[in-house]
Amino acid sequence: MSDVISTIKGMANGLSAEPTTELADALAEAGLTTHQSGGRLVLSEPLELLDTDLIRRSVPGDILSRVEAHWSIDSTNSYLMDRASSADFHGWLCLAERQIQGRGRRGRQWISPFGKNIYMSLGWNLSSRIGLEGLSLVVGMQLARTLRSAGLKDIGVKWPNDIMLDRGKLAGILIEMATPRQGLIGVVIGIGINLQLDEKDAGEIDQAWSDTRGALGIARNKLVANLVSDLLEELPRFADTGFAPYQDSWKKFDLYYGREVRIQLGENFIEGVNQGVDSRGNLLLETEEGQQIFNAGEVSLRALS
Ligand code: BTN
Question: Does one domain contain both 90 and 153?
Fold first, then answer.
């Protein structure tokens, strides 16, 4: 298999390849289309594969302990959760061209076809004394900032951390925590971004979705490097202060701030006006019975208008 992967990497760099059954199978599995030129195979569409050297060189400082790009993996989050007690865990960046069992929040699947999107997880140790509730909102706001500066001006966040573009979900964040040890808690920050999703793949998604097609001003590897650099700047700030200082800036990102929304809590629906978040990142909802507070783990939110 590794020979076939090298061949496909060469093809991504513009080389042609001898047609073999093994290559045809690997190309089909990756969903890559080819045509023949002089009896040899060439890729029909440009393919920018993940480049760990470029990403490492573009991220300032030496905080990243490891940078890995997998051809195919079950889930980058699961991979790092299994390594949370490793000495290298802090700053371990795991990327993949494809996930077989990409995981979303609330037990959902994250559709992860080959080579077109971003699937990344970062291992990070935080003091177990700080409240981690707001971390996913902080990562969401940072992700929105990075995407805005990459050319996607209309990006917003839907509480707690769905990144939205044109009323569809563009990116999602899954933060998982390992068992605390010696005053530290290992968190895996998983980010999935739809850069280019085909209708065929998107057919399996049970909510409105979007991708960045045509609107992104920078290349895939550069976007990963920017995301990681920005996160590495933001995480120490959050570690110092927790969520409270971010409470006000949330309003600038919250797509549904001040609007009528519906919350689903188990089988129940509650409607009210979204009033932003408290100092821990919980949702504040003004309902007919007065203000109610919701924790991200327990509810999901839909806009009513
Ligand atoms: C969500 O449901 O909004 C969260 C989606 C998170 C998807 C990313 S892709 C990289 C990482 N690995 C996973 O299995 N999930 C996260």
Answer: yes
